[in-house]
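User: What would this chain look like folded?
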Amino acid sequence: MEKIITFGEIMLRLATPDYSTINQAHSFLVNYGGGEANVAVALSHMGHKTYFLSKLPPNQLGDGAITHLLSHGVNTDYVVRGSSTIGIYFLETGFGGRPSKVIYNRKHSAITRIQEDEFDWEDIFKDATWFHLSGITLALGERVRAVAMRAVKEAKKYHVTISFDFNYRSKLWTVEEARPVYKEFMNYVDVVFASFYDANTILEIPLDSALENASLSEKRRNVFPKMIKKYSLKYIFGTDRVVYSATENSLAGYYFRLDGDRLSWELTEPIRFNIYDRIGGGDAFASGVIHGLLKNFNDPGYAVRYGLNTSVLKHTIYGDALVLSCEDIENFMAANGSAEVVR
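Assistant: Here's the prediction, encoded as C-alpha coordinates.
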Protein backbone atom coordinates (compact mmCIF):
# COMPACT_ATOMS: atom_id res chain seq x y z
CA MET A 1 0.00 0.00 0.00
CA GLU A 2 1.34 3.43 -0.96
CA LYS A 3 2.27 5.85 1.81
CA ILE A 4 1.04 9.32 0.83
CA ILE A 5 1.95 12.41 2.86
CA THR A 6 0.31 15.81 2.57
CA PHE A 7 1.45 19.01 4.28
CA GLY A 8 -0.76 21.98 5.05
CA GLU A 9 -3.25 23.58 7.40
CA ILE A 10 -6.54 22.09 8.47
CA MET A 11 -9.00 24.79 9.50
CA LEU A 12 -12.28 25.12 11.33
CA ARG A 13 -14.95 25.79 8.70
CA LEU A 14 -17.95 27.92 9.69
CA ALA A 15 -20.59 27.95 6.96
CA THR A 16 -23.80 29.93 6.82
CA PRO A 17 -26.99 27.82 6.81
CA ASP A 18 -29.72 27.97 4.17
CA TYR A 19 -27.67 30.05 1.68
CA SER A 20 -27.79 33.07 4.00
CA THR A 21 -25.15 35.80 3.85
CA ILE A 22 -22.58 36.07 6.63
CA ASN A 23 -24.08 39.27 8.01
CA GLN A 24 -27.50 37.59 8.17
CA ALA A 25 -26.28 34.52 10.02
CA HIS A 26 -27.08 33.89 13.70
CA SER A 27 -25.46 30.45 13.65
CA PHE A 28 -22.92 28.54 11.57
CA LEU A 29 -22.51 24.96 10.43
CA VAL A 30 -19.24 23.55 11.77
CA ASN A 31 -16.82 21.35 9.86
CA TYR A 32 -13.07 21.01 9.28
CA GLY A 33 -11.12 21.28 6.06
CA GLY A 34 -8.12 22.57 4.17
CA GLY A 35 -6.53 21.82 0.80
CA GLU A 36 -3.96 19.17 1.64
CA ALA A 37 -6.07 17.70 4.44
CA ASN A 38 -8.89 17.24 1.91
CA VAL A 39 -6.51 15.39 -0.41
CA ALA A 40 -5.44 13.08 2.42
CA VAL A 41 -9.07 12.35 3.35
CA ALA A 42 -10.11 11.63 -0.24
CA LEU A 43 -7.14 9.34 -0.92
CA SER A 44 -7.79 7.50 2.34
CA HIS A 45 -11.32 6.72 1.14
CA MET A 46 -9.80 5.50 -2.14
CA GLY A 47 -7.84 2.92 -0.18
CA HIS A 48 -4.47 4.61 0.28
CA LYS A 49 -2.40 4.91 3.45
CA THR A 50 -2.38 8.67 4.07
CA TYR A 51 -0.56 10.85 6.60
CA PHE A 52 -1.13 14.53 7.37
CA LEU A 53 1.83 16.74 8.32
CA SER A 54 0.88 19.91 10.21
CA LYS A 55 0.63 21.76 13.52
CA LEU A 56 -2.50 22.24 15.63
CA PRO A 57 -3.22 23.86 19.00
CA PRO A 58 -3.39 21.58 22.07
CA ASN A 59 -7.02 22.45 22.82
CA GLN A 60 -10.50 21.19 21.94
CA LEU A 61 -10.45 22.82 18.50
CA GLY A 62 -7.20 21.06 17.67
CA ASP A 63 -8.65 17.84 19.08
CA GLY A 64 -11.68 18.27 16.84
CA ALA A 65 -9.49 18.55 13.76
CA ILE A 66 -7.57 15.44 14.80
CA THR A 67 -10.84 13.56 15.34
CA HIS A 68 -12.02 14.64 11.89
CA LEU A 69 -8.87 13.29 10.23
CA LEU A 70 -8.87 10.04 12.18
CA SER A 71 -12.55 9.45 11.40
CA HIS A 72 -11.60 9.38 7.71
CA GLY A 73 -8.65 7.05 8.18
CA VAL A 74 -5.90 9.68 7.95
CA ASN A 75 -2.86 9.01 10.16
CA THR A 76 -2.04 12.00 12.41
CA ASP A 77 1.32 10.84 13.80
CA TYR A 78 2.99 13.76 12.00
CA VAL A 79 0.71 16.45 13.44
CA VAL A 80 2.55 18.29 16.22
CA ARG A 81 0.74 20.33 18.86
CA GLY A 82 1.53 23.86 19.98
CA SER A 83 0.40 27.50 20.02
CA SER A 84 -3.23 28.30 20.86
CA THR A 85 -5.10 29.17 17.67
CA ILE A 86 -6.61 27.15 14.86
CA GLY A 87 -7.13 28.63 11.41
CA ILE A 88 -10.75 29.49 10.67
CA TYR A 89 -12.59 30.27 7.47
CA PHE A 90 -16.12 31.54 7.07
CA LEU A 91 -18.10 30.29 4.08
CA GLU A 92 -21.06 32.12 2.59
CA THR A 93 -22.63 29.69 0.15
CA GLY A 94 -23.83 31.29 -3.07
CA PHE A 95 -27.08 30.64 -4.88
CA GLY A 96 -28.19 31.39 -8.43
CA GLY A 97 -26.34 34.45 -9.68
CA ARG A 98 -24.77 35.20 -6.26
CA PRO A 99 -21.36 33.51 -5.92
CA SER A 100 -20.00 31.94 -2.76
CA LYS A 101 -17.69 33.98 -0.54
CA VAL A 102 -14.86 33.00 1.81
CA ILE A 103 -13.34 35.04 4.64
CA TYR A 104 -10.10 33.77 6.23
CA ASN A 105 -9.05 34.16 9.85
CA ARG A 106 -5.72 32.32 9.96
CA LYS A 107 -2.94 34.91 10.27
CA HIS A 108 -1.68 33.71 13.68
CA SER A 109 -2.79 30.07 13.57
CA ALA A 110 -0.70 27.24 15.00
CA ILE A 111 0.84 26.27 11.67
CA THR A 112 2.47 29.70 11.37
CA ARG A 113 4.56 28.71 14.43
CA ILE A 114 5.76 25.45 12.91
CA GLN A 115 9.49 24.55 13.06
CA GLU A 116 11.68 22.15 11.07
CA ASP A 117 13.12 20.50 14.18
CA GLU A 118 9.65 19.38 15.35
CA PHE A 119 9.73 16.48 12.86
CA ASP A 120 11.70 13.28 12.30
CA TRP A 121 12.19 13.69 8.55
CA GLU A 122 13.75 10.28 7.98
CA ASP A 123 10.80 8.54 9.62
CA ILE A 124 8.37 10.59 7.53
CA PHE A 125 9.89 10.03 4.10
CA LYS A 126 12.06 6.90 4.15
CA ASP A 127 9.15 4.64 3.11
CA ALA A 128 6.89 7.23 1.45
CA THR A 129 5.55 7.04 -2.09
CA TRP A 130 4.03 10.48 -2.69
CA PHE A 131 4.16 13.97 -1.16
CA HIS A 132 1.59 16.68 -1.91
CA LEU A 133 1.36 20.36 -1.03
CA SER A 134 -0.12 23.55 -2.45
CA GLY A 135 0.44 27.26 -2.90
CA ILE A 136 -2.11 28.07 -0.21
CA THR A 137 0.26 26.58 2.36
CA LEU A 138 3.22 28.52 0.97
CA ALA A 139 1.25 31.74 1.50
CA LEU A 140 1.11 31.23 5.28
CA GLY A 141 4.48 32.74 6.16
CA GLU A 142 8.24 32.24 6.26
CA ARG A 143 8.20 29.51 8.91
CA VAL A 144 5.70 27.45 6.95
CA ARG A 145 7.69 27.93 3.75
CA ALA A 146 10.90 26.83 5.52
CA VAL A 147 9.24 23.60 6.66
CA ALA A 148 7.73 23.06 3.21
CA MET A 149 11.15 23.51 1.61
CA ARG A 150 12.72 21.06 4.05
CA ALA A 151 9.92 18.61 3.24
CA VAL A 152 10.40 18.75 -0.54
CA LYS A 153 14.17 18.39 -0.15
CA GLU A 154 13.70 15.35 2.09
CA ALA A 155 11.16 13.90 -0.33
CA LYS A 156 13.69 14.28 -3.16
CA LYS A 157 16.37 12.67 -1.00
CA TYR A 158 14.18 9.57 -0.65
CA HIS A 159 12.99 9.61 -4.29
CA VAL A 160 9.39 10.42 -3.37
CA THR A 161 7.15 11.79 -6.13
CA ILE A 162 6.12 15.38 -5.34
CA SER A 163 2.89 16.99 -6.55
CA PHE A 164 2.11 20.68 -6.23
CA ASP A 165 -1.22 22.45 -6.69
CA PHE A 166 -0.71 26.12 -7.53
CA ASN A 167 -3.87 27.15 -5.64
CA TYR A 168 -2.92 30.83 -5.76
CA ARG A 169 -5.15 32.94 -3.50
CA SER A 170 -5.04 36.71 -3.86
CA LYS A 171 -6.64 37.06 -0.41
CA LEU A 172 -3.46 35.61 1.14
CA TRP A 173 -0.70 37.32 -0.89
CA THR A 174 0.03 39.25 -4.05
CA VAL A 175 1.40 37.78 -7.27
CA GLU A 176 4.61 39.73 -6.67
CA GLU A 177 5.00 38.12 -3.23
CA ALA A 178 4.13 34.66 -4.49
CA ARG A 179 6.21 34.64 -7.68
CA PRO A 180 9.73 34.03 -6.26
CA VAL A 181 8.40 31.41 -3.85
CA TYR A 182 6.58 29.47 -6.56
CA LYS A 183 9.61 29.63 -8.83
CA GLU A 184 11.85 28.22 -6.10
CA PHE A 185 9.54 25.33 -5.27
CA MET A 186 9.00 24.42 -8.90
CA ASN A 187 12.58 23.15 -9.00
CA TYR A 188 11.57 20.23 -6.75
CA VAL A 189 8.17 19.08 -8.00
CA ASP A 190 7.21 16.36 -10.48
CA VAL A 191 3.45 16.69 -11.03
CA VAL A 192 1.80 20.12 -11.15
CA PHE A 193 -1.83 21.26 -11.06
CA ALA A 194 -1.80 24.59 -12.88
CA SER A 195 -3.60 26.92 -15.27
CA PHE A 196 -2.34 29.09 -18.12
CA TYR A 197 -2.51 32.05 -15.71
CA ASP A 198 -0.25 30.25 -13.24
CA ALA A 199 2.34 29.50 -15.93
CA ASN A 200 2.24 32.81 -17.76
CA THR A 201 1.61 35.31 -14.94
CA ILE A 202 3.06 33.74 -11.81
CA LEU A 203 5.99 31.83 -13.34
CA GLU A 204 6.40 34.33 -16.21
CA ILE A 205 6.63 31.62 -18.86
CA PRO A 206 6.33 33.70 -22.06
CA LEU A 207 3.57 33.31 -24.61
CA ASP A 208 4.63 33.72 -28.25
CA SER A 209 3.49 37.18 -29.36
CA ALA A 210 1.63 35.78 -32.37
CA LEU A 211 -0.74 33.96 -29.99
CA GLU A 212 -1.98 36.91 -27.94
CA ASN A 213 -5.48 36.55 -29.40
CA ALA A 214 -5.44 32.76 -29.61
CA SER A 215 -7.79 30.44 -27.74
CA LEU A 216 -6.98 29.35 -24.19
CA SER A 217 -6.24 25.84 -25.43
CA GLU A 218 -3.74 27.16 -28.00
CA LYS A 219 -2.09 29.31 -25.36
CA ARG A 220 -1.68 26.32 -23.07
CA ARG A 221 -0.14 24.29 -25.90
CA ASN A 222 2.40 27.06 -26.39
CA VAL A 223 3.30 27.81 -22.76
CA PHE A 224 3.02 24.46 -20.95
CA PRO A 225 5.77 22.71 -22.95
CA LYS A 226 8.15 25.54 -22.02
CA MET A 227 7.16 25.16 -18.38
CA ILE A 228 7.66 21.39 -18.49
CA LYS A 229 11.13 21.77 -20.02
CA LYS A 230 12.23 24.54 -17.69
CA TYR A 231 11.33 22.66 -14.51
CA SER A 232 11.72 19.04 -15.73
CA LEU A 233 8.11 18.22 -14.92
CA LYS A 234 6.46 14.87 -15.56
CA TYR A 235 2.93 16.22 -16.00
CA ILE A 236 0.74 19.30 -15.80
CA PHE A 237 -2.94 18.75 -14.98
CA GLY A 238 -5.84 21.17 -14.68
CA THR A 239 -9.51 21.88 -15.26
CA ASP A 240 -11.63 24.26 -17.30
CA ARG A 241 -14.74 25.47 -15.45
CA VAL A 242 -17.82 27.11 -16.98
CA VAL A 243 -20.10 28.82 -14.45
CA TYR A 244 -23.77 28.88 -15.41
CA SER A 245 -24.82 29.84 -11.87
CA ALA A 246 -23.57 29.34 -8.32
CA THR A 247 -25.41 26.02 -8.32
CA GLU A 248 -24.70 24.77 -11.85
CA ASN A 249 -21.25 24.49 -13.49
CA SER A 250 -19.41 22.31 -15.96
CA LEU A 251 -15.85 20.97 -15.79
CA ALA A 252 -13.42 19.55 -18.31
CA GLY A 253 -9.99 18.17 -17.44
CA TYR A 254 -6.66 18.33 -19.26
CA TYR A 255 -3.13 17.03 -18.99
CA PHE A 256 0.16 17.88 -20.72
CA ARG A 257 3.48 16.02 -20.88
CA LEU A 258 6.56 15.92 -23.08
CA ASP A 259 8.06 12.70 -24.46
CA GLY A 260 11.40 14.06 -25.59
CA ASP A 261 10.31 16.95 -27.80
CA ARG A 262 6.90 15.46 -28.61
CA LEU A 263 4.01 17.12 -26.82
CA SER A 264 1.28 14.82 -25.55
CA TRP A 265 -1.93 16.37 -24.26
CA GLU A 266 -5.60 15.57 -23.83
CA LEU A 267 -8.74 17.51 -23.04
CA THR A 268 -11.91 15.77 -21.88
CA GLU A 269 -15.44 16.57 -22.85
CA PRO A 270 -17.02 18.70 -20.10
CA ILE A 271 -19.39 17.29 -17.52
CA ARG A 272 -22.26 19.57 -16.51
CA PHE A 273 -23.57 19.16 -12.98
CA ASN A 274 -25.51 20.72 -10.09
CA ILE A 275 -23.67 21.92 -6.99
CA TYR A 276 -24.44 21.16 -3.38
CA ASP A 277 -21.05 22.24 -1.94
CA ARG A 278 -18.33 23.62 -4.24
CA ILE A 279 -15.51 23.83 -1.66
CA GLY A 280 -12.80 21.23 -2.24
CA GLY A 281 -13.53 20.51 -5.90
CA GLY A 282 -9.93 21.21 -6.89
CA ASP A 283 -8.60 19.06 -4.04
CA ALA A 284 -10.82 16.20 -5.20
CA PHE A 285 -9.45 16.59 -8.73
CA ALA A 286 -5.88 16.40 -7.42
CA SER A 287 -6.77 13.34 -5.33
CA GLY A 288 -8.30 11.55 -8.29
CA VAL A 289 -5.33 12.31 -10.52
CA ILE A 290 -2.87 11.06 -7.88
CA HIS A 291 -4.89 7.88 -7.43
CA GLY A 292 -5.12 7.40 -11.19
CA LEU A 293 -1.38 7.79 -11.69
CA LEU A 294 -0.58 5.38 -8.87
CA LYS A 295 -3.07 2.71 -9.85
CA ASN A 296 -2.83 2.79 -13.64
CA PHE A 297 0.88 2.79 -14.35
CA ASN A 298 1.22 6.51 -14.89
CA ASP A 299 -1.48 6.67 -17.56
CA PRO A 300 -2.33 10.40 -17.58
CA GLY A 301 -5.38 9.92 -19.80
CA TYR A 302 -6.98 7.68 -17.22
CA ALA A 303 -5.78 9.89 -14.36
CA VAL A 304 -7.32 13.06 -15.77
CA ARG A 305 -10.69 11.35 -16.28
CA TYR A 306 -10.56 9.88 -12.80
CA GLY A 307 -9.72 13.29 -11.35
CA LEU A 308 -12.49 15.00 -13.30
CA ASN A 309 -15.11 12.55 -12.08
CA THR A 310 -13.95 12.79 -8.46
CA SER A 311 -14.17 16.58 -8.68
CA VAL A 312 -17.69 16.48 -10.11
CA LEU A 313 -18.77 14.07 -7.38
CA LYS A 314 -17.25 16.26 -4.66
CA HIS A 315 -19.57 19.10 -5.69
CA THR A 316 -22.48 16.88 -4.65
CA ILE A 317 -21.17 16.22 -1.11
CA TYR A 318 -21.36 18.49 1.94
CA GLY A 319 -18.05 19.45 3.52
CA ASP A 320 -14.56 20.09 2.20
CA ALA A 321 -13.51 16.59 1.17
CA LEU A 322 -14.59 13.78 -1.12
CA VAL A 323 -15.57 10.79 1.02
CA LEU A 324 -16.46 8.20 -1.62
CA SER A 325 -14.87 4.85 -2.38
CA CYS A 326 -13.25 3.85 -5.66
CA GLU A 327 -16.31 1.71 -6.37
CA ASP A 328 -18.58 4.77 -6.10
CA ILE A 329 -16.31 6.81 -8.34
CA GLU A 330 -15.87 4.10 -10.96
CA ASN A 331 -19.62 3.42 -11.09
CA PHE A 332 -20.16 7.12 -11.75
CA MET A 333 -17.49 7.08 -14.46
CA ALA A 334 -19.13 4.11 -16.14
CA ALA A 335 -22.55 5.76 -15.99
CA ASN A 336 -21.39 8.93 -17.76
CA GLY A 337 -18.98 7.33 -20.22
CA SER A 338 -15.87 8.30 -18.20
CA ALA A 339 -15.80 11.77 -19.79
CA GLU A 340 -14.36 10.68 -23.14
CA VAL A 341 -11.15 12.37 -24.18
CA VAL A 342 -11.18 14.79 -27.13
CA ARG A 343 -8.50 16.85 -28.86
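The first strand starts at residue 3 and ends at 7. If you want, I can go into more detail on any region.
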